């Protein structure tokens, strides 16, 4: 059974040591989508003279930038990595670059599809990396090695970063211990998300460090739980359609009856992502292209 860890009380602005090579500073930007805030990770030895790596610089909040500047004072940063360009992950990358001179590394953003929905943190449309990473690309630093793992789904350009020295995976928003990830079309894609979860199951990472919330030890059963949760959600959708629900609002009212109404818009985006995937896999049909206002029905098998 999937069990979420909500026991997280960050020390905003302070550096917390999580392992010999990992420290974390949490931004004070709590929200329904960021939990208690964005965790910026600093990778490398505390006494490194060859350069530290920063993963997910976070929002460009003055308090967070001040905390990063204080911690990094007198230290060298050689790389800035971004898992994806949501507004709670990437805006501080360029200010941090101005402070440190380090290059920004991320997956290309050229192919992203934008929308006007505001049910999550929103895209940082100004973001662009200096170095575009491909899946499986390995970056060496001073005492650390990071591998880019392309995990589209939450966003098309989402990357996780595997720290080889500690068999650790910085999982961004792809896998979080406190909640499921938002998969919101058009740039979020449920089929890609499920495939990316399956991809993690063949890896040997021993711990995940999400950008929001606590680390996830023994991650394989948790990832399997996330996959099972999504399969169950699709079965729920099939059942409510069988019972007569044809539209996304009707489905959300039934499936998310015990969820606060202010989260229903985000739930509707998630249901849409499932419906698009279920139409693509021919389990459902709709009147035209799968959209928020479409009518959905079971596929007729002749």
Molecular structure report:
This protein has 6 helices and 15 strands. It is α/β, with parallel strands linked by helices and 302 residues long. The protein has 2 domains: 16-226, 4-Layer Sandwich (Metallo-beta-lactamase, Chain A); 228-298, Arc Repressor Mutant, subunit A. The strands form 3 sheets. Strands 1-2-3-4-5-6-7 form a 7-stranded mixed β-sheet, covered by helices on one side. Helix 3 (190-201) packs antiparallel against helix 4 (219-242) and helix 5 crosses helix 6 (264-280). Keywords: Hydrolase. This is MBL fold metallo-hydrolase. InterPro entries: LACTB2_WH, Metallo-B-lactamas, RibonucZ/Hydroxyglut_hydro, Sec-metab_biosynth-thioest, WH-like_DNA-bd_sf. Pfam families: Lactamase_B, WHD_BLACT.
Number of strands: 15
Unreliable sequence segments: none
- Give the mean pLDDT: 95
Structural class: alpha/beta
Largest sheet: 7 strands, mixed
Q: Please give the alpha-carbon distance between the first and last residues.
A: 37 Å
Portion of residues in beta strands equals: 15-25%
CATH class of the largest domain: Alpha Beta
CATH topology of the largest domain: Metallo-beta-lactamase, Chain A
One letter per element, helices H and strands E, the order comes to EEEEHEHEEEEEEHEEHHHEE
| Overall form | elongated
Tell me the number of structural domains: 2
GO molecular function: hydrolase activity
Domain Metallo-beta-lactamase: 37-212
Keywords: Hydrolase
Protein name: MBL fold metallo-hydrolase
């Amino acid at each position: 059974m999937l069990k979420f860890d909500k026991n997280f009380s960050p020390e905003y602005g302070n550096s917390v040591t999580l392992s010999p090579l990992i420290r974390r500073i949490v931004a004070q930007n709590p929200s329904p989508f960021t939990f208690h805030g964005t965790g910026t990770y600093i990778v490398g030895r505390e006494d490194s003279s060859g350069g530290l790596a920063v993963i997910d610089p976070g929002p460009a909040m003055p308090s967070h930038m001040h905390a990063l500047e204080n911690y990094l004072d007198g230290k060298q940063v050689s790389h800035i990595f971004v898992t994806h360009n949501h507004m709670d992950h990437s805006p501080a990358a360029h200010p941090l670059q101005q402070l440190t001179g380090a290059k920004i590394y991320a997956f290309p953003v050229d192919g992203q599809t934008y929308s006007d929905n505001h049910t999550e943190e929103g895209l940082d449309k100004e973001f662009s990396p200096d170095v575009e990473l491909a899946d499986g690309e390995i970056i060496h630093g001073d005492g650390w090695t990071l591998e880019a793992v392309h995990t589209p789904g939450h966003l098309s350009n989402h990357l996780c970063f595997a720290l080889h020295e500690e068999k650790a995976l910085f999982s961004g928003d792809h896998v979080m211990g406190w909640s499921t990830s938002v998969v919101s079309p058009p740039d979020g894609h449920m089929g890609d998300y499920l495939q990316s979860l399956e991809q993690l199951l063949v890896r040997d990472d021993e711990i995940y460090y999400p950008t929001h919330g606590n680390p996830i030890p023994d991650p394989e059963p948790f990832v399997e739980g996330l996959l099972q949760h999504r399969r169950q959600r699709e079965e729920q959708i099939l059942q409510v359609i069988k019972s007569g629900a044809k539209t996304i609002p009707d489905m959300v009212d039934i499936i998310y009856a015990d969820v606060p109404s202010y989260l229903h818009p985000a739930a509707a985006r998630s249901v849409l992502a499932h419906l698009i995937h279920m139409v693509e896999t021919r389990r459902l049909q709709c009147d035209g292209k799968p959209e928020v206002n479409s009518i959905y029905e079971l596929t007729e098998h002749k």
